[in-house]
Amino acid sequence: MTAREVRLLVVDNAKDALAVREMLEGADGFVVRVQCAESLVAALTALAHHTFDAVLVELSLPDSEGLATFETIQRHARDVPIVIYTGTANESLALSSVERGAQDYLLKGKVTSAALVRVLQYSIARSQSLNPSRKPENPEAKVIGFLAAKGGVGATTVATHFSVEMRRQTRAKVLLMDMDCSSRSAAFLLKTESQYSVVDAAMNLHRLDADYWKGVVAATPGGLDLLQAPGAAGFTDQPSGERVRHVLRFAKALYGYIVVDLGRLNPVTLSLLEEVNDVYVVTTNGLPEMYEAGRVLKRLGDLGFTDSQVRLVFNRVSKSAFALGPEVEKALGHPVFWTLGDYSREMENAYAEGRFLDEGLTLRKQVALLVAKTLGVEQKKPARGMFGLFKLARA
Predict the structure, then answer these.
(1) DSSP 230-291
(2) 52: alpha, beta or left? (left if phi > 0; alpha if psi -120 to 50)
(3) Which of 114, 205, 272, 369 has the fewest beta carbons closer than 10 A?
(4) Cα 362 → chain centroid
(5) What is the mean pLDDT of the chain?
(6) Do 48 and 125 reside in the same domain of the chain?
(7) What is the CATH number of the domain that holds 113?
(8) In sequence order, which residues have a C-beta less than 8 Å from that of residue 299 and are 6 or more positions away?
(9) pTM of the prediction?
């Protein structure tokens, strides 16, 4: 048999990883690279960053126990063969895992080097024959992030209108994921009440399946799903960025589009940006806001985002605001993708009447044009001359 290199993830501890490596060393035709993950979250992070030929799973981990461990790994390791590697106390659970899709199971202390090699070889071959490099039947969602250059620029309001319009124009399943730890603005605008938030999903990765997800997200009028911000459920502390990123990865298989209100740049936001396709940086024309926007744009560039992935949106633009528009673009070093007018008075009146997302609002109409441009749909010129004020919002 021709030697081949196999990347193997061992979900347990360094001691077991060493034992596995020693059993596989020198096996005829079998060269293995072993990586260890000592917790469920560490395993999910490894799966997000690397490609593995097989996974050895211990069912008892510090942050997960029993079948939930296997089922969570299975959801995040699509088409990767999973072999249970556990003690005799968990043999019945190992059998149940095989019934649910694990390739096989091995008992610690009783497995030989030859048996380990044989099980891995057969598992990998069987998996490849069942899934011969095929594309997933359901493509993952496109993830669009909204970043506020500074507090108070209206990024949440724009992101919420954007999500509603994305759902209306595409008829696809859309999720709005709110990451504002200090407020419940999106829930307020959508007139949605729920006792659950992104924290619940992040702290229950081992339970995260389609049924659990339905209980965590809030369905809103118009078919939009909302995963509430921590602040909406009374939490003010930020959840673990790695855990939230795995929540987002799970959700990508369930929706056509996911809009993430990222708030401002912070450690959690930086973690989530790895899963984001396009970023809309929202600012106003105030000097402090534009200065912060410039810093955000530079940071995104440093992270590897291209100009086409980063879209600068000016909000609350007055009619006299951008007489020196080209100079603004030059100063920020980035083209302006879109401008939204200052509709503060109209919005205040609408809020007083409980019409938060009314289709008749000028802001809603202008965001509808922004969504159309995002989707590549030819736009009609607005009835009002708002965009004529700022010639930089070009196709």
Answers:
(1) GGGGT--SPPPHHHHHHHHHHHTTT-SEEEEEEES--HHHHHHGGG-SEEEEEE-SSHHHHH
(2) beta
(3) 114
(4) 30
(5) 86
(6) yes
(7) 3.40.50.2300
(8) 265
(9) 0.83
